[in-house]
Prior knowledge:
Radius of gyration: 17 Å
Strand content: over 45%
Number of strands: 5
Order of helices and strands: EEEEE
Number of domains: 1
Structural class: mainly beta
Strand order of the largest sheet: 1-4-5
Largest sheet: 3 strands, antiparallel
Mean pLDDT: 89
Amino acid sequence: MATTIDTIRATPVTVPLEAPLLHSNGAHWGRFVRTIIEVETNDGYVGLG
């Protein structure tokens, strides 16, 4: 039996900064927002990215 993708989940994550991040246009707004992607196969394997 071939392995196929069973489920895909996207989870947004917000990580606060301890101090403002300064750059040429001013300052970063105080937190980073990223998305964690979770892929699960029909065999039970899970991958994160």
